[in-house]
Amino acid sequence: MNTSLKKSVFVSIAGLSLAGSAAGCAPGQATGTPGTSAAPSAAAGSASYKDGTYSADGNYVSPNGTETVGVTLTLAGGSVSDVQITQHPSNPNTRKFQGEFAGGIQSQIVGRNLNEIKVSKVAGSSLTSGGFNQAVEKIKSEAGA
Amino acid sequence: MPHPGWTDFSFDGIGTRWDISTPSPLSGALRRRLLDAVADYDAAWSRFRPDSVIAAAARQPGRYTLPPGASDLGQLYATLYRLSGGAMTPLIGGSLEQLGYDAGYSLRPGGPPLPAPAWDEVLDWQGTVLTTRAPVVIDVGAAGKGQLADLLSAALRDGGVSEHVIDASGDLVNTGSVPVQVGLEHPYDPARAIGIVSLGAGAICASAANRRAWGDGLHHVLDGTTGAPVRTVVASWAMAANAMTADALATALFFVDGFRLQQEFDCSWLTVHSDGHAEYSADFEGVLFS
């Protein structure tokens, strides 16, 4: 489902279907970075657009209803040179489907004692069975540890 | 217990501890069905017993039929084998034995790390039939526990228990309408967590280098191309719609960048590296303590 969403957003961008209220982005009138709030549609465009940055909200239908995603694209030399997508999901579940467009890095993990936090389960590597545990103990005692 | 008032059914299976929580106690018949499913899975896939299908394949080449789930498992492994450049492989059993994680738990390396054989040289996996050209030790531990959790979940659903939380010792399946708050175990200290994630309907699986470790840097997450333990990623978590996928992806994160995995799988993920930094997908935003 992730892949088809991404594809449908990219396909509508590739078709340069930023039609709708054309006032702000009529060919030949764009100055610098015109922005429009028209939603991309499937209309075929034969007009060429001036180089610059265009913004629009895209709609797609998720299992939770219609969602919007912000799209900013940059035209250079008449073709799309860059696309930026910003999330503004209206439903928490939708963040799952838009998740592949964002992520993060934290420079250092921080631990907190389990008895100080409120969780009902812990996810970690599996406890080992008796056989493995006994073997480890045996190794340790043989090593004189 | 994930929810107040629920009942737990606990047992040992496939070398680890299981805990199934349900709103009401399970019938004796359903409990037996679950334990039978665990026993059947072990009898097919365990490399720790001489009477399993896998043990037979380790003794001599031939044509071996595995349970119905082998079809999905094979396809998943094939994809991850490709994405990891052969680092993640079902043929890792020999490498594990070489380092000491053998059927007798000798925990003594028999020699330097041994790379796994190339898949297309020794193994033909079509659906549920495995045909081998040489004796090979197959180990599906990277995804098998998750698949078994899914099988148990299906058995519970078939038995009319649609709401349940399955805890396969840190790998979790939640089918209920209430999310479960899950602590992410600190890879170097089981008494601490590094964050809390909310598990809605779906599965979260974890992989880490800490527990199945037997000294001098030897742990059980091996790179199939070298036969040696991975040194960079130390812990990983993956969330997906089913546990087999989450389990496999948690292991895959030791070899493949999470954003790359997201291109082929609907998942969210978090990895902790040996220098203490963490990387994660959008759904893990805000999960880590800071």
Query: Which spans of chain A of ≥5 residues are poorly predicted at pLDDT below 50?
Result: 1-46, 89-101
Reading off the top of the CATH hierarchy, the class of chain B is best stated as Alpha Beta
Which class do the helix and strand fractions of chain A yield? Answer: alpha+beta
Q: Give the C-alpha Rg of chain A.
A: 26 Å
What is the percentage of strand-forming residues of chain A?
Answer: 25-35%
Instruction: Find the count of extended strands of chain A (DSSP E, 2+ residues).
Output: 6
Provide a count of the helices of chain B: 8
Chain-averaged pLDDT of chain B = 95
Describe the structure.
- The complex is a heterodimer of chains A (145) and B (290).
- Helix content of chain A is 21%, strand content 28%.
- Chain A has 145 residues and is an alpha+beta fold.
- Chain A has a domain at 2-101.
- In chain A, strands 1-2-3 form a three-stranded antiparallel sheet.
- The longest helix of chain A has 13 residues, at 2-14.
- Chain B has 290 residues and is of the alpha+beta class.
- Chain B has a single domain (7-284), classed as Roll (T-fold), CATH 3.10.520.10.
- Chain B has eight helices and 15 strands.
- Classes of the chains: A alpha+beta (145), B alpha+beta (290).
- At the A-B interface, helix 2, strand 4, strand 5, strand 6 and helix 3 of A face strand 8, strand 9, strand 10, helix 8 and strand 15 of B.
- Strand 5 of chain A pairs antiparallel with strand 9 of chain B, so a sheet runs across the interface.
Q: What structural keywords apply?
A:
A: 145 residues, 3-stranded antiparallel sheet, 3 helices, elongated, B: 290 residues, T-fold, 8 helices, globular
Question: SSE layout and pairings?
Answer:
The complex is a heterodimer of chains A (about 140) and B (about 290).
Chain A: H1 2-14, E1 52-62, E2 65-76, E3 79-87, H2 94-98, E4 103-106, E5 112-113, E6 121-123, H3 130-142
Antiparallel strand pairs in A: 1-2, 2-3
Chain B: E1 7-13, E2 16-22, H1 28-45, H2 53-59, E3 63-65, H3 70-83, H4 93-98, H5 119-122, E4 123-126, E5 129-132, H6 141-158, E6 165-167, E7 172-174, E8 180-186, E9 189-199, E10 202-208, E11 222-223, E12 228-229, E13 233-240, H7 243-252, H8 258-264, E14 268-273, E15 278-281
Antiparallel strand pairs in B: 1-2, 2-6, 3-5, 4-5, 6-7, 7-10, 8-9, 10-13, 11-12, 13-14, 14-15
